[in-house]
From TrEMBL:
Stated name of the protein: Putative MFS family arabinose efflux permease
Broad class of where this protein is predominantly found: membrane
Ranges of biased composition (kind: Low complexity): 431-446
Membrane topology field: Multi-pass membrane protein
Amino acid sequence: MLDWFRELSRAERKGFYGAFLGHAVDVFDFMIYSFLISTLLAQWGMSKSMAGAIVTWTLVSSLVGAIGAGLLADRFGRVRVLRWTIIVFAVACFLCGIANSPEQLMVFRMLQGLGFGGESSLCMVLVTELIRNPAHRGKYSGFTASSYSFGWGGAAIAYAITFNLFEPEVAWRVCFFLGILPALVVVYLRRNLEEPEVFLKSRAERGRRGGNDSPMADLARVFRRPLLSKTLLCSLLSGGMLGAYYAIATWLPTFLKTERGLSVFGTSSYLAVTILGSLVGYVAGAYATDRWGRRLTYIAFAAGAFVMAMIYMVIPVSNTSMLFLGFPLGVLMQGVFSGIGATISESYPSRVRATGYGVAYNLGRVIGSFFPLAVGWLNSGRTSLALAIAMVAGVGYALVMVSAALLPETSGIDLGEAGGGDERDDRDTAKPAGAPSPVAPAGKPA
């Protein structure tokens, strides 16, 4: 099963390690806040609406950061800009730890959003461009995405340990500070990382042809034909899977405590099973996306995740049964994410790939940020929390299935030809690797 990984070159392995840890650090610090909300509500007398607003504005700023980092990366290089984003992220981790009010924390989390928006997007662009064999691109990006489980699990472990070692008023600050050290390790891992060959070729060709469009022209390109449909569908695809995940993951601890009557330890145990399942899901999805293709994998995992969410949230089962059901829920809920890095990267030409990825994935983040709010709204005297979670997650998974069905299958394409190449006005996005370019008959226009 790991023969493909043993075949990786030294550069491909270095890129994987740097992207894996960088993405895990992003997830750690994004998820750690969800564990700290109850403490901050008591510490500062912060309202729940303010706590939710901090999450929303962090995600909005991640869109700005991703677009900005994408524009810079398409001009100056993926590796160089990734070094900048992780530094911004590390500084923001420190500032969050010394915040003294909800307003300060919101500002510092927005700064952090700028960093992790660019970091998470460029990590996936980098690994998809580094891999030489397109037959393994789904596995390569899927295993990189599995770092989400490690970041999520790391946040749960850090929360449990620090709140056992320190008083709550100190422990929450320590949790934020913990994100600094691994960020510095990422800086070290990337010190000698080289730019992907496909990017260097694209930049060289752009220079030879005098391609000096402004950054805003590059941004506009992803919003006009023929890339516009890809941008919209990739945004809805990522928005659906992120929204469903946010709806479940944000409210699951509350559901377990309030509607299932579990203790803090019991809740942590149930979450641990779900997180373990999510890791298996990433691996399963990584292999499926190369074997079955991108679209079928999305549809199969999204449909399965919706069914599991309904069983877990709505059908009356014992707490013991729920403990075991958390594993397949995690598998399906996170396995749907495995191919997203490959799909979005394969939908854009090299000259705007980082920009396109930043726009599509992080527009999805913004779309997804409204799903937890929808759960809260439905639960405010309209329906039970369990049904609200299942209904909102169902909408997200429906978006995934519809978007996947409408997107072209991109499995195995040559990234040098993705989006139709850089010098042909981005036509023929889903051209398979090795497929010949269309040639017009004599006397007829191509």
